[in-house]
Amino acid sequence: MKRATSPKGVVVWARLTMAILAALIVLAALAGCGTKDTAGAQIRGRTLTIYTSVPLRGLSRVSGMAVVSGAQLALAQAHGRVGKYRIALKVLDDATVQRGGWDPGQTTINARVAVLDPTTIAYLGELNSGASAVSIPPLNRAGIPQVSPTSTAVGLTAASPSAFPGEPQKYYPSGVRTFARVVPNDTVQAIAQVRIQQGMGCRSTYVLDDGEVDGADAARSFELAAETAHLRLVGNQAFPRNATSYAALASGVAQLQPDCVLISADTESGAVALTTQLAEAMPDVKIFGSAGLAESTFTDPAQGGIPESIDSRVVLTAPTLGPSLYPASARAFTVAYQRRYGAVEPDSIFGYEAMSLLLSAIDRGTDRGTKPALRSAVRTALFATRDRRSVLGTYSLDGNGDTTLRRYGVYAIAAGQLTFWQAITA
Q1: What is the average per-residue pLDDT within 7-16?
Q2: Do residues 379 and 39 make contact, with C-beta atoms less than 8 angstroms apart?
Q3: pLDDT, tens digit, 9 for 90 and up, residues 299-341
Q4: How far is Cα 366 from Cα 372, in angstroms, rounded to an integer?
């Protein structure tokens, strides 16, 4: 099926692509400027720095802050140390006021800061897959191990049918993998979306994505999964981010009479207005959203989210599962997190596990903090993760850096709050 993209959507995607390419070019130029560090370079001194880069402004700040808080909790529980080494966490904001969310230029700066710091042992980020596409190459050149809590785009790690040209090789100029993630990729989410839609009676679906890397990848993965499962797609297009009105778009979709609509986007895209106007134009349609919308700023009208009157018609997928499906350690995490930070956002537990995984890799790579700290040793330990018992359950990392976890959560919305419904195993 051809991808129908609106002129505004083309402009948005083109601008974002150019921004990402410009960021990558800048970082490529920087690779030779004070960064002669090799993948096996030893960190001098007894302070090892982990940088984290997430959006701390804009609507997705709730997820960014949740990741940081989860990471801080994990580090605090480890008393900020691995053996003789003190672990310092430095938090960087990859969002800008001008863009209202993560920004390729700011992500470039964040990666540069980490690369130029001789004490950097690892990098926790990014939240968004598009940002990871910017930061992976320079970090890879410097041999810095990287763990993302939430970047799900398939092409960051694997050459699959849903990956885009040149992926994933273009992200790894050194030829050695340095990027891993604790969240299942979009292939898993796509299967969960198709199954829940078919289970709710969807026979035809219209797909709308925000033109970002995350939105486009999740939409592409869904289209492939839908084709395999014989779920009919009646249309798919990118919508313009933060348009003044989506009434005309909603009217056009309504004319095709889909049973269901999938919005593959982040909250900062204008998804609240889009969802509201789709619901108005199609009173009987079921609306599904990808993990980028599983935030209180999308669900809660008090925070600018969708009106409560359409809660019953909206279903979201997110990698976070219900408390009863996690091991006891996850319940202990929830209690500790709530005591220290308050309400738990879906991404909190992934920030916690990303930091826990990095601390484990540092511990194993330095023989419990007794041997010299080498980035290459930490990277090797990271990719050697097998049968790790974590708050997310027991998992391993494969050679691409993907987790073996294959479950995705399905959420309803009640009174503006995300309510766990069920888990789907892909």
Answers
A1: 38
A2: yes
A3: 999 999 999 999 999 999 999 999 999 999 999 999 999 999 9
A4: 6
- Report the alpha-carbon distance of residue 260 to residue 201 in Å, rounded: 9
| CA-based end-to-end distance of the chain | 24
User: Read out DSSP for 67-118?
Assistant: HHHHHHHHHHHTTTEETTEEEEEEEEE-EETTTTEE-HHHHHHHHHHHHH-T
Distance, in Å, from the CA atom of 34 to the CA atom of 97, rounded to the nearest integer, reads 30
Structure-block tokens of residue 381: 């330990």
CA 231, CA 93: separation in Å to the nearest integer?
40
The mean pLDDT value for 99-107 works out to 96
Give the chain's radius of gyration (CA, Å): 21
Beta-sheet pairing, 95-96 with 101-102: antiparallel
The answer to whether residues 361 and 354 touch, using CB atoms and an 8 Å cutoff, is no
Handedness of CA 348, 353, 359, 365 (dihedral sign): negative
Q: Are strands 81-82 and 47-54 parallel, antiparallel or unpaired?
A: unpaired
Q: Where are the domains of the chain?
A: 23-183+330-395, 186-318+408-425
Q: Tell me whether strands 85-93 and 286-289 are parallel, antiparallel or unpaired.
A: unpaired
The Cα 168–Cα 149 span in angstroms is: 18
- Residue pLDDT, tens place only, 183-239: 999 999 999 999 999 999 999 999 999 999 999 999 999 999 999 999 999 999 999
The answer to whether 172 and 145 have CB atoms below 8 angstroms apart is: no
CATH number for the domain running over 23-183+330-395: 3.40.50.2300
Domain 186-318+408-425 grouped into CATH 3.30.450.40: no
Rounded CA gap, 248 and 277, in Å?
Answer: 9
CA distance 326 to 381: 25
User: Do residues 193 and 229 make contact, with C-beta atoms less than 8 angstroms apart?
Assistant: no
Residue that is written with structure tokens 């997110």 in the block: 318
Instruction: Kindly state the greatest CA–CA separation across the chain.
Output: 67
> How does residue 379 score in pLDDT terms, banded at 50, 70 and 90?
very high
| Phi then psi dihedrals of residue 160, to 5 deg | -110, 170
Cα 208 to Cα 4, 266, 308, 349: the distances in Å are 10, 12, 22, 28
Amino acid sitting at position 153: A
Strand 407-414 relative to strand 314-318: parallel, antiparallel, unpaired?
Answer: antiparallel
Contact 293, 265 (CB under 8 A): yes
Same fold, 23-183+330-395 and 186-318+408-425: yes
